[in-house]
Write a structure and sequence with these properties.
Blueprint lengths: L4 H4 L5 H13 L4 E6 L2 E6 L5 E5 L2 E6 L2 E6 L5 E8 L6 E10 L12 E5 L12 E4 L8 E6 L2 H9 L11 H9 L2 E5 L3 E5 L13 E4 L1 H4 L15 E8 L16 H14 L2 H15 L13 H17 L3 H15 L1
Antiparallel strand pairs: 1-2, 1-14, 2-13, 3-4, 4-5, 5-12, 6-7, 7-14, 8-9, 9-10, 10-11, 11-12
């Protein structure tokens, strides 16, 4: 069956937002992130998670960290797909954003003491001190939280200096001390309790800090068509049909594909999904690839290629789909 916008449109109401977030936060293979290029926190639902929700507030807890979300009145949602590194794969996500003019968080580029973390999810940590390490990423604060006197003294001595830099001795000490990390936007906050692993990325909630990437002060990759007027606050990564929770390749999981489709139809850029529908209609009608007017923008060309990749898994007419893909390869040769 060919799905069109009229089949699965989901209005952006508080009730639907509540259903959407509960669905993604309770899924065993979904994950979330807050941050930007070079500094972000991730929350994975691979560990036992307790989900609480009421009205416009959500909180998911595990032994290794937590995420809390408070939906803004001017919240926007963008569903997107990007090309994967394998020739038949893709990535996808949902970005929650607010207008840049609504942002009020400070954007430090040096170490700053924030004070006691009165918003800590666990009351036991509300007297611990927060320090913004000064990543300079717009609309996001990347902080550490501690009650260790020795670490507090070190951080207070270096307040006002840039420590989120390659080779920073202060940053090295922080990494070895492994305090809690707190990364927050105006919409969401991720707290990471588990230790920093200096050698490999751990499963469950964790953070990434890559000083070289911070120089660009970019909140997101250019592959994501977020309007320039919007500030990203939270990204959700639904389970991918081709990769399991550990990133290992698996047989195509159509159920995972079907679960994300309503969000893609409702919240993707209109021209992006329009190209997917245009191509899908042509494929259903067995149009020759030579007779198909090519897409004329970067976004629609991406949509076109992703739809072809998805059809290699969805369509029973593999030979026909391969003709389209071969034509595209010859065009770029």
């Amino acid at each position: 069956m060919l799905l069109t916008d009229e089949n699965l449109v989901i209005p952006l109401t508080q009730s639907n937002m509540h259903t959407l977030l509960c669905s993604y936060l309770s899924g065993s293979e979904n994950s979330c992130s807050i941050g930007g290029m070079g500094a972000l926190a991730e929350f994975h639902t691979t560990h036992p998670t307790e989900l609480q929700s009421h009205d416009n507030y959500f909180c998911a807890n595990s032994e290794l960290g937590c995420i809390s979300i408070k939906i803004q009145s001017d919240q926007e949602v963008l569903a997107y797909e990007t090309l994967g590194k394998h020739e038949d794969s893709w990535r996808w996500g949902l970005i929650f954003s607010i207008p840049k003019e609504s942002c009020s968080l400070p954007n430090y580029t040096v170490l700053r003491e924030i004070g006691k973390d009165s918003n800590a999810n666990n009351p036991a940590h509300r007297n611990d001190l927060l320090f913004d390490i000064g990543t300079g990423i717009p609309h996001v604060q990347f902080c550490i939280r501690t009650n260790e006197n020795e670490l507090i003294s070190l951080l207070q001595r270096h307040e006002g200096t840039a420590i989120a830099t390659s080779g920073s001795p202060v940053l090295d000490i922080v990494a070895k001390a492994s305090p809690h990390r707190v990364v927050q936007s105006q919409t969401a906050r991720i707290e990471v309790y588990q230790k920093i692993d200096l050698y490999k990325t751990p499963m469950g909630p964790h953070t990434h800090l890559l000083p070289k990437l911070l120089r660009g002060k970019r909140s997101h990759t250019s592959n994501v068509p977020l309007p320039l007027t919007q500030a990203p606050q939270l990204t959700i990564y639904p389970a991918n049909p081709l990769f399991d929770r550990y990133g290992h390749r698996r047989k195509f999981n159509k159920a995972a594909y079907d679960r994300f489709l309503p969000s893609l139809i409702a919240y993707s850029a209109p021209e992006f999904y329009a190209e997917k529908i245009r191509l899908r209609t042509a494929l259903l009608n067995h149009v020759s690839p030579e007779d198909y007017p090519p897409p004329n923008s970067r976004l629609t060309r991406t949509a076109h290629e992703i739809e072809l990749r998805q059809q290699t898994h969805l369509s029973s007419e593999k030979k026909y789909i391969n003709q389209w893909r071969k034509k595209k390869r010859n065009h770029h040769a």
